[in-house]
Each structure stands twice: as structure tokens, then as C-alpha cells.
Amino acid sequence: MYLKPNKILSSKLSRRRLWVHPPEPPKEFLLSDPTKGVYLSKTKLLNVPFFWDFRMLINPHISVVGVTGAGKSYMVKTFLTRANLTWGTNALIIDWVGEYNSWVEQTGGEVLRFGQGSYLNLLDLAGMKPIQRIKQIVSALDILTDIGKYSIQKRFLEQALTEAYKKKKFILTKFENKNPPVLEDVIKELEKIKKTQKTEKKKDEVQECIHRLKPYVMKGNDYFAHQSTVNLDTIIKKGLVNIDLHELPSEEMRSLAGLTILQMLKEKMRFEGWSPDKGLKLFIVADEAWKIAKDDRSDLITIVREGRKYQFGLIVASQNPTDIHKDIFSNVGTLFIMRLMFKDFKDHVRSSLNYSDFVASQIDKLGVGEAVVYLGYAQKTDFSNIILLDKIDGEEPLSYYKLKGDGMEINFEKEKFKRQLKEFGLNTKQVQDVCSTFEEHDNTIHIIQLINKLERYGFGPSTIITFMREMGLKEGELIPLFSKLQREKMGIDGDKLVRLVVEDEEIKEN
Ligand SMILES: Nc1ncnc2c1ncn2[C@@H]1O[C@H](COP(=O)(O)OP(=O)(O)OP(=O)(O)O)[C@@H](O)[C@H]1O
Ligand SMILES: [Mg+2]
Question: How many domains in the chain?
């Protein structure tokens, strides 16, 4: 047998892209008309600008994984800003830790704070029939509590929910736009059901069911027990909205809020249906939603599995890939893998995607803001659908730092603030230290934190007061602040301090 050399045109050869390892998708799959795609950064291998375009992908859902500080939120912020410019896409962020607040406020968006005056009635119908919503409520409690193990309790809960809607004159198979019942009504129905039970055992089961609901109606914990103050119809059309859940007292409460919002939006968007020419109306972001990103029954997973059925894209971000259900990885149209540290985490991602050793070695080398991106193209392709991206080319989304005090808030333009710190006498390292404290806390710190730092650098109280005055703090704000600081240092209650003396100690270091 002979090996016969074949004549081959160089253009044919180059199309095989033998020299690129791994081959990137061809340019036409990466580049897009800037008015049609969202630019993120350039590819590492061929330096081609990468534009994310949902029309090329199997679905618009995105997952982002990476250690803390890898640049997930930065990427999401850049992405949402540009998606809004390009397609007018609105965004609703379900924010577990409150890290998007100042960015959303400064970009002119709206922040809704659960635990601080925003309520969501768990029995809200959000356009659904009571019979549908009852199923969803039971399913949410099934995921978040262990009620699923007690089928008899689940049945009592369903019965009480049904009675509560009926009592308010709802027809179970029809959506009606009127005030639905609240959790207290469901508890009342359970009390009634308990009375009608013949055996002690059954009475106990109903009582158990009541116990499960009680924490949600307790004063101070009743975030889901009043008529909704949040109107989902309007907040999904408002540009950028952040739902800050970090003030809620437990992970269960945060998850219940997240899951409920998803359940309700999913039904709303199902009516609209998917069509690429309608564009992409909304992104729903779930950052660190670990509890609801893992459970098989969670709507987060159903939405991703169902792909293009809805007129919105989901963005699921997490520090820990093992907190994200494998179905999310294997079904999302786009997966951003950012810096990962632990072997377990890397193995989890790799077992869902099956990439080469080369890609694995690239993941090991990722720096802040860089990503390995998996793209699920809508059409069948014969090229690699993994790209290596340089540091996300973001526009500095936040240019302000915020100082918070009791009942006050001051914004400082970042660069100017840095200059002022330098003029005040801080060295470069100290300026960096102050700035990173801001960055670690969503660009917002308490003024006492800043004063403590300045004192640690060796500045005396009177110098600090002069600085604060220059920064624009008013006398009426400064005195209570320093007296509070002094009280804290002396470990005494507020009322006992009658005179505040501001005097400088010797400067310790500079
Ligand atoms: N592409 C980038 N270009 C410039 N700075 C970046 C980039 N990505 C991240 N950073 C900076 O790195 C820091 C951490 O980024 P970010 O808050 O996005 O991390 P994260 O992955 O969301 O972390 P966490 O899991 O703790 O929320 C921020 O100060 C951010 O400004
Ligand atoms: Mg983050």
C-alpha cells in the first residue's frame, strides 16, 4: 500500500485550521454586527472580538462559575449594560448578598429591598389559576422544607390553600384579578381542618403543618404574609431592577423569595412564547442562588431544560459549580468558566462538558476577568465550540464610592476620592487598602470603618475631622459620629457620655 500525496489548495487547508489548538469557531460565529450582539472581549488564540448573540445559540440561558473575585459579577454587569443598549433588554437581578445595589442605583435602576418594606404575597396568582399556584406553593415548600416526606401533611396543606382561595370567592380554574388570600387565611383553614379530624394522629399531622407555616407569619418575619408591594408586571419592564434579598433572615427565606419570583415570572413569560425576531425582553439573574440551583424540581432548572420556550434568558452565577445542577451546565446555551480553585469543582464542570486536557490546562491558568466559554450553537457545527476569552473588556461600571453613616449617605467620585486621600497624607499602599475595602463591600462602607482605618494609619481625631469636613460632611453629622466612636471605644452606653473631647494623640505611623 502506498501513501499518495494529495494536491490541496491552501485555502482548503486553512479552513481545517490544523495549526490552532484547540480550533476556535470561525469568525462569523464570533463576530457580530455591534448593533446585534453583545461585545465581551477578544479571544485569546486569534484575538477575534467576541460578540454574544442569542440568535446563534440553542437558548439564551447563561451560567457563570468561578471563585470569589474571579469577576462573575463584573461580567454580568458589563453584559447587562450592553444587552440593554443593544436590544433594550430589561434585567431583574435576584441578589442573594446585596452586591448589585449601588451599581443598579447608579445606572438609574431600581432596588427593591426585601426585609425592608417590600412584601411578596406567597398566594399571589400572578396571572395564574388558583389550582396552578397551589401546586407551585406546595412544590416550593417541598424543595425548601422536608414536607415532601410527609405526604399526609402535603395533602392538608393543599386542602387548606384550596379552602382559603374559595373563601375569598375564587374559582379554582380561573384567574381573577382581585386580592388573593394570605398565609394567615391558610393557617385559619388548617385550624378548621384540625378540628374535623377524628384521630389524634391526624390532628397532630395538621398541627405539624401549622407549625411549618407559623415562622412565615411571625411579626418581623412576615415577608410573604401580606399583600404584595412588588408588582412583577411592572418591574420586568423597568430597565434594571435589583431585588435585594440579603436582609432576609435565613437562606430558606431568600430561596423562597427567589423561587416564588421565578415561578411567577415563568408563567407570565410562557404566554409570550419564544421567537427570535421578538428579541430578548428580559434577563433574570440568580447570583449565588445555590439552594434553588441544585434541586431537580426547582424552576431554575426547568426553565433551562425547556430552553427557548420563554421570552427571557436566565443567568445563573455561582462560586461553587457543585451547587449548580448538572442539567444546567449541559443545557445552557452559554457557560462561562472563570477562575476555579478546587479540584472537585473543576471535575464537576468537566464531567458535564467533557472537554480536552488542553482546555482543562487553560482553566487552571485563568486570571481575574478571563474565561473559558462553552457555546451551544443552534445549528449543527463541526468546529470546537469552546473559546478562551481575554479579560472581559468592561466599561468601569461603577465610578463612585459610597460612605454610609447613621441616616446619611455620601457619594464620592472614585478617582477624586483617591486624590483626596493622597493629599490628606495617605501613602499609596494605604490608599489601595481603603479602596479595596470599598470594592469588597459593593463600593459602600460605613464611615466609622473609614475613621478606624485612618486612626490606624496614625491620624488623630482632629485631623480626621478636618478631612471629613473637606469631604463635605456637615458639623451636625460629625459630632454624633465621633461621640458614637468614643462610646464604642470606652464600651459605654450612649446616654452616659455627657462630654466629647476631641484631642490628638501622638501620630503612630505614617
Ligand atoms: N474583567 C475585569 N476587568 C477589570 N476588573 C475586574 C474584571 N473582573 C473583575 N474585576 C474586578 O475584580 C473584583 C472582583 O470581581 P467580582 O466582584 O466580579 O467577582 P465575583 O466573581 O463576582 O466574586 P464573588 O463571588 O465574591 O461575588 C472587582 O473589584 C472587579 O472590579
Ligand atoms: Mg459576585
Answer: 3
